[in-house]
Each structure stands twice: as structure tokens, then as C-alpha cells.
Design brief:
- With 466 residues, the chain is α/β, with parallel strands linked by helices.
- The chain has two domains: 111 residues, Urease, subunit C, domain 1 (Roll); 309 residues, Alpha-Beta Barrel (TIM Barrel).
- It has 13 helices and 21 strands.
- The strands form four sheets. The chain has an eight-stranded parallel β-sheet with strand order 8-11-12-13-14-15-16-17.
- β2 and β3 form a beta hairpin.
- The mean pLDDT is 96.
- Bound molecules: manganese (II) ion (MN).
């Protein structure tokens, strides 16, 4: 599988140890063998000239939904197409969310996901989502299987939401097993009331999706999550933070010494709620919803001040036809905003979009690597194999061309979806070459690796819990 060692020569290495001119040797074992200035090629070694390129750790996207059935439809990317697109965009590891629905044995759900994930082309870990109280032995069994993070929802009472007593219980139990909880923070009960009122008053349009999920109800849930984590003396990870008031609650909690870790997503850094009024407004339905532009500015600020620590995608694509058909099995289209399958594509475009923040002068190159690779790898127990380029780490290496233009139109991308939330936008900065465990998997926007080469990553306990 690794006939040759590879020497990446003449580039600039950028990772946790800083930015410096160095050559990088990928060993025959698929790991980083050396990072030093002026390495001499060894016999039989493939030499790749990387002048003008940044050599960075492969992206780590810790929030994806591939293959997922949602109502009468399914997300349009499976583990094959989704991971191919990820690799092309510079992401070499994902952590996807398993959901154990009420009444379902979580270990059965895990087996289902493991089956779906077999075609994966990059390494992948899994989180486990509980939708009801579970015995502690289930948490122990998941940790044993390499799942060291557990998702709970504070919203979607019909299907997913759990009450605060269950959150408290699972936070304490996961902590005992060296694991922690990630939370979807929105006040589900209050949102239900708003949705029911909107429907009763005949307000059924797409914009109501955002109006019935106001930022205040995200902020309330973040504050509650922090209080619960403080009582349980544990860390908590807030997924897809979308708004300024919610960010303020993260900041307040962190100032009080509570380990609230916040993730945001590119859609909250680039898109705003005005898109819901576009003719293709249904294609911008996601949860939490897109916010007004001032929230976007605040989130960038949160990134630069360290209150937001990771950028993941919540990749959850649907075709236009599936969005327009709605969640129920019907041909006449969705009846109201509550029936639109929510979620956006993004697994391929995350590295490029966050890099745009570098180009725009909002963040540094080091911030980019930290947000997209290092912090997610550390937080989710993928470190030190992933998220850095130290000797011995997996040779997940992206040769990033900061001058390369890439259109974000759907036709120029590889996700199995027929629209792009960023259509009309071109980013400058995109991968030239992507290596995963030392294998060249993407070159010039094409997937060139073996199919199904990805491996399940049994995750260690996050550093904070050891
Ligand atoms: Mn999600």
C-alpha cells in the first residue's frame, strides 16, 4: 500500500509547532517520518516539489451526517460520496453522528452506522446520540467501542429531545467513563409553542423556520447547558453555535471557569437569514437557522477571541427535489415550513471557506489550522494521530495552494447534491494534493485514492478527561 516513501520538498509547514520552511517526509508506514529543513531524498523515495504550498494537517470535521434517513428522504451524500468530497476539499478525518432512536438498542444503531460507513474513503470516528435515558453500561460499551462523545438534543421533542434530568444523568455518567456530552442547544419546548402558533395563524412560509427559532432560545439553552455542566463538574461541547446571544452565554460560562467548548459552522460565518426569502429559500433551511448579518460578525469575533474553538460543518445535504417534496411521503410538496428537511452541504468547502477568513484578514493562518484540524482532533480524542504533523502522526497532509481559485458552484464541487449554498462565490486557496495516512487521495480536485480505504478510528478519551 505504501510502495514508496514520499518527500514533500520546498513547502512551508504549518501546524501546532508553528509556521516554518521545512521538508516533510512521509514514511512507508503512512506516518510523518521527518519534518526538517533541507531533507535529502532517500533511494526509492518519491519527491514532490511543494514550493509555494502550505503543508498542513488534514482537516478534521467533527460534525457530519452521511447516509442519514430523515423522514421520507435521506441525506444525499453517503459515506462514499461524502468522504470523497471531503478529501478533495482537504478534510481527511470525520466524526459522524450515530442516532439511537427511542426504543432502539444503541449498539444496534452503532452496527447500522458501521455498515453504512464501510465505503468511507477517509478515516472516520463516530459520536453516539441518545434520545432517551440509557443505562450506564451502554455508555461504558460505547466508550469501549471507541466512542468518547455523546450527543443530546435540547430541541425536537417529538423525536430527539431529552429533559434536563436525563442530560444531568448522562453528563455525570459519561464523565465517569472519561467521555463527554455534545449538545444541540435550543429550547425545544418554547420553539414548539412558536411553531404551533405560527401554523395556527396561517404563517407557513419558509421564513417562519427562522422566526420560530429565535436566537434568545438558543442562548437560553446554552446557559442551561453550562449550568448543568457546572453542576456535573464536566465539560460540555455546544454544536453549531449560530448567534450572538448564544456566544455571549458561552463567553460568560467560560469566564466563570466552566469548560464550555463551542463549535460553529461555515454557514453561520457566511450566510444570513435573508437567503430564506430567495426563490430557492428552502435550500437554506438549517437548524439553528441562519441569522441576521450582525450575528455573523459576532461569530467571527468569537473565533478570534477563543470563545469559539472549532469549525465543523453539520454536513447534511438534501437535493432540491427532496427539499421541495418535504419530509412526508407526498408528491405535492411540503405543506408548511415544518416539513422542509433541514441541513446544508459543506463537507467539501469548510477548509476553503475558513481560509477565506485568512484572506480577509479576520483570522491568522495558525487560527485556521487550529479551528479546522488541531482543536477538533484534541477535543475528540483523535490526538496525537490526527490534527498535527509531528513525527509519528498519521501522514494526513494537505499541500494547500493559497493562490488557487475554486468556484463554490455545485457543478465545480463533488458532493452528491444539486445546489450549493455558496453558488456564485469563488474562494482563493484550495488543496493541490491531499495525503491520508501517506496515500495520495486527492490531486487537483480529483479523488485518486482507493475506494473504501478509510478506517474506523477508535477514539481515545479526550485529553481534558484523562
Ligand atoms: Mn447535526
Amino acid at each position: 500500500m505504501h510502495p514508496n516513501a514520499v518527500l514533500l520538498r520546498g513547502g512551508t509547514v504549518l501546524d501546532v509547532d508553528g509556521e516554518r520552511r521545512a521538508d516533510l517526509r512521509i514514511g512507508r508506514d503512512g506516518r510523518v517520518a521527518a519534518v526538517e529543513p533541507a531533507l535529502e531524498p532517500e533511494p526509492g523515495e518519491t519527491v514532490v516539489e511543494c514550493a509555494g504550498r502550505l503543508l498542513v494537517p488534514g482537516g478534521v470535521d467533527v460534525h457530519t451526517h452521511l447516509h442519514l434517513p430523515v423522514g421520507a428522504v435521506r441525506v444525499s451524500d453517503d459515506f462514499l460520496t461524502g468522504t470523497v468530497a471531503a478529501a478533495i476539499g482537504g478534510t481527511t478525518t470525520i466524526v459522524d453522528y450515530v442516532t439511537a432512536y427511542r426504543g432502539q438498542d444503541p449498539m444496534d444503531a452503532l452496527a447500522t452506522w458501521r455498515g453504512w460507513a464501510e465505503p468511507a474513503c477517509i478515516d472516520y470516528g463516530l459520536h453516539m446520540t441518545f434520545t432517551e435515558r440509557v443505562p450506564e453500561r451502554t455508555i461504558a460499551a460505547c466508550v469501549e467501542a471507541g466512542i468518547t462523545s455523546f450527543k443530546l438534543y435540547m430541541a425536537y421533542p417529538e423525536l430527539l429531545q431529552v429533559d434536563d434530568d436525563v442530560i444531568d444523568e448522562i453528563m455525570r455518567a459519561t464523565r465517569r467513563h472519561g467521555a463527554f456530552v455534545t449538545l444541540h442547544c435550543e429550547n425545544g419546548g418554547a420553539i414548539e409553542a412558536l411553531r404551533r402558533r405560527a401554523l395556527a395563524e396561517g404563517r407557513t412560509g419558509i421564513l417562519e423556520h427562522a422566526r420560530t427559532r429565535p436566537a434568545e432560545l438558543e442562548a437560553e439553552a446554552v446557559a442551561r447547558a453550562a449550568a448543568l455542566a457546572e453542576r456535573a463538574q464536566t465539560s460540555v461541547y455546544v454544536v453549531h453555535l449560530s448567534s450572538a446571544p448564544a456566544l455571549a452565554e458561552v463567553r460568560k460560562a467560560r469566564e466563570r471557569g466552566i469548560d464550555v467548548i463551542a463549535e460553529t459552522c461555515p454557514q453561520y460565518l457566511y450566510l444570513d437569514t435573508s437567503r430564506l426569502s430567495d426563490p430557492d429559500g428552502e435550500s437554506y433551511v438549517c437548524t439553528p437557522p441562519l441569522r441576521d448579518p450582525w450575528h455573523v460578525e459576532e461569530l467571527w469575533h468569537g473565533i478570534t477571541t477563543g470563545a469559539v474553538q472549532t469549525v465543523a460543518t453539520d454536513h447534511c445535504p438534501f437535493t432540491v427535489a427532496d427539499r421541495r417534496a418535504g419530509l412526508r411521503d407526498r408528491t405535492s410538496g411540503f405543506a408548511d415550513f415544518t416539513e422542509i428537511p433541514g441541513g446544508l452541504p459543506g463537507i467539501e468547502t469548510r477548509m476553503g471557506l475558513v481560509w477565506e477568513g485568512v484572506t480577509a484578514g479576520r483570522i491568522t493562518r495558525a487560527d485556521w489550522v487550529r479551528l479546522c484540524a488541531e482543536a477538533p482532533a484534541r477535543t475528540f480524542g483523535l490526538w496525537p494521530a490526527k490534527g498535527n504533523l509531528r513525527v509519528g502522526a498519521d501522514a494526513d497532509v494537505v499541500a494547500w495552494d493559497p493562490a488557487r481559485d475554486q468556484s463554490l458552484d455545485a457543478e465545480a464541487l463533488h458532493m452528491a447534491v444539486d445546489h450549493s449554498p455558496y453558488h456564485g462565490m469563488t474562494v482563493t486557496g484550495w488543496p493541490d494534493l491531499v495525503f491520508a495516512r501517506g496515500e495520495l487521495v486527492a490531486r487537483d480536485g480529483m479523488y485518486v485514492g482507493e475506494p473504501a480505504r478509510g478506517r474506523y478510528v477508535s477514539r481515545a478519551q479526550p485529553a481534558a478527561f484523562r
